[in-house]
Specification:
Order of helices and strands: HHHHHHHH
Helix content: over 70%
């Protein structure tokens, strides 16, 4: 976790330095900052993991807030990176389905909020991963159909969405495995792989911020033109 926090801090510093270079990446600065706050919350709660105590309780609620912001920030960034209005509509429907499922899960746990602590991964984190993998694949589908003369290594969206896809696609089997290992002593060891995945994500985000600025001005949300194919 220490390595992940280190790269989170480095990514935050670089994102602040290059904040004005690319308007599309600005939301990632806030995303990195919120991730760092979540890390601090987990460190503050350690080693007290009893949901009945304040330290553990604030960790779960902070994680819930971070999950919401993470999904919104990643979805908005992916939407900004897709030019086809038809494809963007699919991404928006995907987001609505996620929030609908989230509302149902929250309504079911409303009478007993302690259930959130015991089923947070299954009912919240895993659906988030699943509904983030879908728009990432949609982005790459459009990317390989479109004609863009700019090299991929100079496209910040390519690096960021690759990181988002890698994180969430690998997290799905990891979280399933972690739940199976929850009753064993190997749970903490397996779940620490999640920190490695976030470290890789922030390395790719740093690479995105170091990309040269595009000569073409960014399009505002909702005013992109369809890709001819």
């Amino acid at each position: 976790m220490g390595v992940m926090v280190l790269f989170t801090v480095v990514a935050l510093i670089i994102s602040i330095i290059y904040y004005r270079r690319n308007r599309d990446l600005r939301i990632l600065t806030w995303y990195i900052a919120s991730s760092l706050m979540q890390d601090i919350s987990c460190i503050y709660a350690f080693p007290d993991r009893d949901p009945g105590h304040f330290r553990a309780g604030q960790m779960y609620w902070t994680e819930f807030a971070f999950m919401l912001f993470e999904f919104i920030a990643c979805t908005l960034f992916i939407l900004r990176s897709i030019q086809s209005r038809q494809i963007r509509r699919i991404v928006k429907i995907n987001a609505l389905l996620f929030f609908g499922l989230l509302a149902v899960d929250t309504a079911l746990t409303f009478p007993n909020f302690s259930r959130i602590y015991t089923s947070f991964v299954i009912y919240y984190i895993m659906p988030e991963c699943f509904f983030l993998v879908i728009p990432c694949h949609i982005y790459f589908y459009e990317l390989f159909l479109s004609k863009n003369l700019r090299p991929l290594k100079d496209q910040p969206a390519f690096w960021v969405i690759t990181g988002i896809l890698f994180l969430n696609a690998c997290d799905l089997p990891l979280l399933l495995t972690a739940q199976l290992l929850k009753i064993s002593q190997h749970f903490n060891g397996a779940y620490t792989l999640n920190n490695i995945l976030y470290t890789i994500l922030f390395v790719l985000v740093i690479r995105a911020f170091l990309c040269p600025p595009s000569n073409t001005p960014p399009l505002p949300y909702g005013n992109s033109t369809p890709v001819s194919g």
